[in-house]
Amino acid sequence: MNTASKSTDAPLKGVRVIEMGQLIAGPFAGKTLGDFGADVIKIEAPDGGDPLRNWRMIKEGTSVWWQVQSRNKRSLALDLRSSEGQDIARKLVAEADVLIENFRPGTLEGWGMGWDVLSQLNPGLVMLRISGYGQTGPYRDLPGFGMIGEAMGGLRHLTGEPGRVPVRCGVSIGDTLAALHGVIGILTALYHRKVNGGQGQVIDVALHEAVFNVMESLIPEYSAFGAVREPGGSALPGIAPSNAYPCRDGVVLVAGNGDSIFKRLMHAIGRPDLADAPDLANNAGRVARVDEIDGAIGAWTATRGVVEVLDALSQARVPAGKVYTARDIAEDPHYRARDMILKQATRDGYEVDVPGIVPKLMGTPGGIRSAAPHLGEDTDAVLREVGLGAEQIAVLRARGIVA
Question: Ligase: is it a keyword of this entry (predicted)?
Fold first, then answer.
């Protein structure tokens, strides 16, 4: 793919992952493991595969989102609702290190693939289960998507302008947070397995809990003070100044909330009176006068262009930045210098820019080893690995069990 992304010493080389489920949360976890060398076998329904293949913008018959979400994976088109398909899945899991699934709780149990069964087949199995509300509790059986998790986790209440309907952040952040927590759990469980006798375990990730885990002081403030945090628009309530300020040709974000940074910021905008005010020397005093401070910064930015503002604040060593669009990201030299945009060849014959690998391991970096597969492209190869011959595969294909 991109020479900077190839590594012969991938840190998860030799780890086999079976990915079940579809769309975002489970597959994003699989994608992350695949980026670092795991052999990820994605099981898809023969009749259409993962719906993400057809989400958002389509090129050459496939979503470009799919190209990044399913890179470094192999596709096995297998009907998990059939007894034959379930038998094959159990054979795969018996030889795997990790199983990822994001079905509604109870689905795998109904297919004869609950933890009680799979752990007997493979005592070292690490099983990530992502669901709306977790595998236990009174809401366990309710359907849950990422947006519901964001709402229950407390995030949606804080997104938007005060007094207006909450808005989503623009991406499926609830699903992605659940996936990342799942990856943390997988890596932790694999380490535990290595140093504690080879025993696997279940990782139970609920979408709303993954969101809730990043909600900072939300609950401690309610517990200690009875305070219900409310939406603050572009500001960071309780920390000042930290806001978005309009310029002649756009908007800049300014984080001047450090004590020394605030002084430099005020001098940069020509307000030494505020810089030297004794009551503004700490955050508590600045919060009390936040409207005045925001007004002063906004008055200064309003008469200047974005580039001029950023240049001035950079010279003053004040954290500031513009609001990036996709075009800004694609054209930014820093993204390119750090290999955060890579050129990926697709199986459909064109190249597309995709996000690079995060995090960056200096000794054993991740990489893009293979493009996202066509539906069932690796079916025969995977089935041969579990001992099926050509005639057996042909029979399964004729019956629609595999494709």
Answer: no
Instruction: Count Cα neighbours of 315 within 13 Å in the Cβ-side half-sphere.
Output: 8
Q: Give ∠ CA 364-368-370 in degrees, rounded to 5.
A: 130
Q: What is the pLDDT of residues 301-333, one digit of tens each?
A: 999 999 999 999 999 999 999 999 999 999 999
**Interstrand relation of 341-345 and 62-63 (parallel, antiparallel or unpaired):** unpaired
Q: Nearest-CA neighbor of 105 among 148, 144, 141?
A: 141
pTM: 0.93
CA atoms within 13 A on the CB side of 66: 26
**How far from chain centre, in Å, is Cα 44?**
21
Paired tokens of 115: 């933890």
Q: Could you give all domains of the chain from N- to C-terminal order, each with its CATH number?
A: 3-214+333-398 (3.40.50.10540), 242-323 (3.30.1540.10)
- Give the whole-number percent of the chain exceeding pLDDT 70: 98
Rounded CA gap, 131 and 129, in Å?
Answer: 7
Q: Which helix (H) or strand (E) holds 116?
A: helix 115-121
R_g of the chain computed on alpha carbons: 25
Structural tokens at position 287? 């919060």
Q: Which residues contact 308 (CB under 8 A, 6 or more apart)?
A: none
Provide the β-strand partners of residue 129: 101, 204
pLDDT of residue 8: 60
Terminal C-alpha separation, the chain: 27
Q: What is the pLDDT of residues 170-229, one digit of tens each?
A: 899 999 999 999 999 999 999 999 999 999 999 999 999 999 999 999 999 999 999 999
**Which residues are marked as active site?**
175
Q: Are 131 and 144 in contact (CB under 8 A)?
A: yes
Angle at 156 (CA atoms; ends 153, 160), nearest 5 degrees: 155
Q: 234-247, pLDDT tens digit by residue?
A: 988 899 999 999 99
The bridge status of strand 16-19 relative to strand 39-44 is: parallel
Packed helices 259-268 and 306-315: angle between N→C axes, nearest 10 degrees: 130
Strand 351-355 to 341-345 pairing: antiparallel
